[in-house]
Design a protein that fits this description.
heterodimer; A: alpha/beta; globular; B: alpha/beta; 13 helices; 8 strands
Chain lengths: 532, 247
């Protein structure tokens, strides 16, 4: 199969015609050609030149359901942020397409990755024990944590018993799940995030908004503002290199003197007891390898059986996430360096329970690439913080309710179920079908507003009775009075606020059929109607 | 071949011409078409909202209306997707299974079942942006979506190429959702409308005069957005174009 078979546009050298447009000003390599790999944007992001206040995320009120729509509306009310966010993430989606379409066996790779995960998850106990044994044989101290609190307690104990007061860590969604940083701060341990995006979010006291690009919702001006306040940089200098360099320079001293270091885990290899991390900044290597005490936090679903399986996932991960063939660093942590300690904490935190959910267990296949977020048209226009949860975007919609059904009951409705997420998922999780399935579960367990369910009940009652339905539609000219509520199910007329209402037709199809096909012959029936 | 025509509720109420064009087109290509008079809806609004119990009676009515046909044809990828994939609120009797597996969307019925290779009566000399409804594209496989690494195909574009004068324009984001999303359009109006605005702006930039789709619901939403933004775009269902609408 040639590239041209895959897409006729490939003849013109492009999958998306606008990718390599004339205004492509991406970085040049040594041969003078534009660089399409690495994390650089395909084209420079047009950073806003005007100051606009950064919209904040969803309001959190204990266990009360998150109002994602409200937070999304505030995000949209900051058009510069929204446009930059959409453009940046769509750019990643395009680069993902370009690199995926460059690999003819891409769909086979997805199939294979999905099957490896399915196999591992259905033999998880076995592989976890194998991993533990292999890690111990490597000189690693292995711990098991039932939930986030357990994880935090175990880590705190390790730190305290060694007199550790500072810990540098690389990015980990698992530790976000556990509320690790906040817990440690409350116990007098200083935590320093070493990933650029994660550090920005830490300094701004905000959660990550994207699992791969934690600060993607911020503009350079926002970062300049945060760094000026916290790192003492020039508030008027929003040059990306200046800001990144400032973060590196201020973080390095912490890395050099930290008592302990921590990383998350992309893949845990059962056969060798190895933790593998994939990063672009090299900060996981520094966080893990410099301090005398190193800890790796591992979600139990991260296990894969053998080293040979790793290649399948490595080929998919960064291409799906950023469109680059591989991350700059793929680091294997296997055993403690001489004179140091290495700990691995295997964390369940709801995963075993999720494994038992017939319709939702495959969400555990997720390798946290963020491709579903990049492609999600709702996510790109809402910002990740609008979901008010550790995991945002499509994968968040199907994972979050397993943590707290009431609080995240609204999230599966923040989707058009267009299915693009499912198609980009490198491990073939049927994300949009699980969103559909969650809606059913949430309705059955009375987690949707009574108003909404009442409207559906009324609609169902009318739509199942032809006579009532015809009466509701009535004469054509009254259709519009009834339809906003009836066909559009909309008591508040939210349709009309931003969209024109459809024109009132002269008559319904039903009335036309009755008049033209039940009373006279078909041949002189319909006039050729033009589009309105 | 006995074909039962399903005219979805919003087509019946808002876009009767789409129903008429579908009926005429099917007759033109030799089908005997009947329109069961007691039809209403496929149950999608309720099922997509998670309210399956509330959808059951509507689904049962749909099956009752259409159980006697060789094929059921509807001018909507979205409703056909509901019938084929999600009509599960009622017990899956043989009659239900038969209706679900014999229900086709118009484009795939013409393309795959009737294998139409010419539409001599159709002429539409305009610049056209084709909008693939997400359920038609990814749910019932009208075309190869841009995400998937497989050989390119598109059933609606194959049919549009048989229409004299159609000039297809390329969108920057060809299969991005337009934001209609059924009840999403009213429960998340801000995001829905913004997606619609971005979609119609893309169509406008591509130089389209007309936007053609196999789903009236997306068209209704996009038309509402384009009118609000004052863009000179016109929206028409593919059934009308294939049936020879002069525009």
């Amino acid at each position: 199969m040639s590239v041209e078979d895959l897409n006729p546009r490939a003849r013109e050298g492009v999958i998306h015609p606008e990718v390599r447009a004339a205004d492509d000003e991406s970085e040049r390599g040594q041969d003078g050609g534009r660089l399409q790999h690495a994390e650089a944007a395909t084209k420079p992001i047009r950073a806003p030149q005007t100051r606009e206040k950064q919209p904040r995320g969803a309001k959190i009120r204990g266990d009360r359901p998150i109002d994602q729509a409200e937070a999304a509306e505030r995000f949209l009310a900051a058009p510069l942020h929204q446009a930059a966010h959409d453009e940046r993430l769509w750019d990643l989606r395009k680069k993902r397409d370009t690199s995926a379409h460059g690999i003819p066996e891409w769909e086979e790779l997805r199939e294979l990755a999905s099957a490896i995960k399915a196999h591992t998850l259905t033999h998880l106990d076995q592989y976890l024990e194998q991993f533990e044994a292999a890690a111990k044989a490597n000189g690693v101290q292995v711990h098991w944590a039932a939930d986030g609190a357990d994880h935090n307690r175990i880590v705190l104990e390790i730190l305290r018993s060694r007199g550790a007061k500072t810990l540098v860590k690389s990015k980990s969604m698992l530790t976000e799940e556990c509320g690790f940083r906040h817990h440690m701060a409350a116990n007098g341990i200083e935590i320093i995030e070493t990933d650029l995006g994660e550090r920005i979010q830490q300094l701004d006291n905000e959660e990550p908004s994207h699992i791969v690009a934690p600060a993607v919702h911020k503009t350079r001006m926002d970062v300049a503002e945060v760094f000026a306040k916290t790192l003492g940089t020039d508030p008027d200098n929003d040059d990306a290199h200046y800001l990144a360099e400032s973060q590196r320079e201020t973080t390095r001293p912490y890395i050099l003197k930290a008592d302990a270091g921590m990383t998350g885990c992309n893949f845990a290899i059962a056969e060798t007891g190895t933790v593998v991390t994939c990063t672009n900044e090299g900060n996981a290597d520094l966080s893990g390898n410099v301090p005398p005490l190193q800890i790796h936090s591992i979600g139990i679903e991260k296990i894969i059986p053998k080293v040979e399986h790793l290649g399948v996932f490595i080929r998919l991960l960064s291409r799906s996430a950023l469109g680059s063939p591989i991350t700059q660093y793929t680091s294997h942590f296997r055993g403690p360096r001489k004179g140091t300690e290495m700990h691995m904490v295997l964390v369940d935190n709801g995963r075993s329970a999720r494994l038992g959910l017939e319709e939702f267990w495959t969400s555990l296949k997720c390798i946290r690439c963020g491709a579903c977020m990049n492609t999600c048209p709702v996510y790109r226009r809402s910002g990740g913080l609008s979901y008010g949860a550790t995991y945002s975007g499509p994968i968040g919609l199907i994972i979050d309710p397993t943590f707290n059904k009431r609080k995240y009951s609204t999230l599966p409705f923040s989707s058009t179920m267009n299915g693009s997420c499912t198609n980009v998922c490198p491990v073939k999780i049927n994300i949009h079908e699980q969103i559909f399935a969650w809606r059913k579960v949430l309705v059955e367990e009375h987690h949707i507003p009574a108003l909404k369910q009442g409207m559906m009940k009324a609609a169902g009652a009318v739509l199942s009775r032809p006579a009532a339905y015809r009466a509701a539609i009535g004469a054509a000219d009254s259709a519009l009075k009834v339809l906003p509520r009836f066909a559009v199910y909309n008591p508040l007329n939210t349709w009309g606020k931003k969209r024109e209402m459809p024109d009132a037709p002269r008559q319904t199809f039903h009335a036309w059929y009755k008049q033209n096909r039940m009373q006279k012959p078909a041949k002189d029936a319909a006039p050729k109607d033009a589009a309105r | 071949m006995r074909v039962g025509l399903f005219v979805p509720c919003y087509v019946d109420a808002f876009e009767p011409e789409v129903g008429i064009a579908t009926l005429e087109l099917l007759e033109r290509v030799g089908c005997t078409v009947e329109y069961p008079f007691d039809q209403t809806c496929c149950g999608q609004p309720m099922a997509n909202t998670g309210c399956h119990a509330e959808a059951a009676a509507t689904e049962a009515l749909f099956v009752k209306n259409f159980s006697d046909f060789d094929y059921v044809v509807a001018p909507s990828g979205s409703c056909v997707h509901q019938v084929r994939e999600h009509l599960t609120a009622i017990p899956q009797t043989d009659a239900v299974k038969k209706v679900r597996s014999s229900t086709y969307e118009l484009v795939e019925f013409l393309h795959d079942v009737l294998k139409i290779d010419a539409l001599p009566w159709a002429e539409f000399p305009h610049k056209v942006a084709y909008h693939g409804n997400c359920n038609a594209l990814r749910g019932i496989h009208h075309a190869r979506p841009s995400e998937i690494v497989k050989p390119y195909f598109s059933k609606p574009v194959d049919l549009l190429r048989m229409v004299k004068g159609v000039e297809l324009v390329d969108l920057a984001r060809p299969d991005e959702c337009c934001g209609f999303g059924g009840t999403f359009s009213v429960f998340e109006p801000a995001v829905s409308a913004k997606m619609g605005y971005d979609k119609v702006a893309d169509q406008n930039r591509a130089g389209a005069e007309y936007v053609v789709s196999a789903d009236s619901s997306c068209l209704m939403h996009q038309k509402g957005c384009a009118e609000r933004l004052g863009l000179p775009l016109r929206y028409i269902h593919i059934a009308q174009v294939l049936n020879g609408a002069a525009a």
